[in-house]
Amino acid sequence: MAWRFALVIDPAAAGDARTDFGDTFTPIDVAAPALSVGEMSTQRGDGIFESIGVVDRHAQEVGPHLDRLAHSARLCDLPAPHLEQWRQAVAIAAEHCPPEGEAVIKLILSRGVEHGPTPTAWVTAAEAPDNSAVRDRGIRVVTLDRGYGIDTPARAPWLLLGAKTLSYAVNMAAIREAKRRGADDAVFISSDGFVLEAPTASLILRIDGRFVTPAPNGGILHGTTQLSLFAHLEEGGSETAYETIPVTDLEKADAAWLVSSVRLAAPIRAVDGRELAVDAELTASFNRYLLTPRD
Ligand code: PLP
């Protein structure tokens, strides 16, 4: 039986000066019902989340994930999360992970129960899926129109395009469509022809020896894995850049990856049926780096 752990958080105000938040956490029985009827996260997907990779009990990049949780909360008009409180909740969840191997910690901040006084918040930990095959063999992707222009996020911020909201039904539908087309995953394209991101990962292309990723102001999530990998590449002397990338540039890439916190770096083997070489050695070095403890 796969192991799981969960605790509910009584969210503290962002300005709370306490240093120990232990009494605001309630571990819960993962097999028992835990959410109230009327919970907005389940009724409307009205909330935000983060998925943090865990390696040998070390939660990776907790600071960047908490910063993005706070960013998503701002975009969604949710109360600012108390970052130290969430950090302590993550630490408890990490302690409940096995001493060896990969796990995933999820942070959820929901608008709460309809007409209720506060948001609802909880943290879970569970075994990570086995991603060794996608890291080694790679994945086939198809491009899918997201239906928004590259300037839509600036014109229509209420679409919450840069927030990691709980409303992932569209992202999951895109992956199903990619599978119907014989691929493993999708890469979203803006309606005016720019490359964006995958439904659950960031895209990195290598073009003329430079590592390029779509600029986050185009309505995509700023991935913590891409950020960390770019810092690592820059340290090693490689050139990196955020750019507005036309879809025609996909053909210029001599290697490409989808990267995210739990899957880590998955090399792309084909785009819309066109084969792409996998740089197996570089991919292995990316994943070795991503599996080392990172803060
Ligand atoms: N883009 C989307 C839409 C995602 O859902 C994710 C992760 O789930 C990412 C990018 C990658 O983000 P991270 O590297 O922080 O996991």
From TrEMBL:
InterPro entries in the cross-refs: Aminotrans_IV, Aminotransferase-like, BCAT-like_C, BCAT-like_N, Class-IV_PLP-Dep_Aminotrnsfr
EC number(s) stated in the UniProt entry for this protein: 4.1.3.38
Source organism, top-level taxon: Bacteria
Single annotated GO MF: 4-amino-4-deoxychorismate lyase activity
Entry keyword annotation includes Lyase: yes
Enzymatic class: lyase
Cited Pfam families: Aminotran_4
Keyword list, A-Z: Lyase
Family: Belongs to the class-IV pyridoxal-phosphate-dependent aminotransferase family.
Protein name listed in UniProt: Aminodeoxychorismate lyase
Source organism: Microbacterium arthrosphaerae
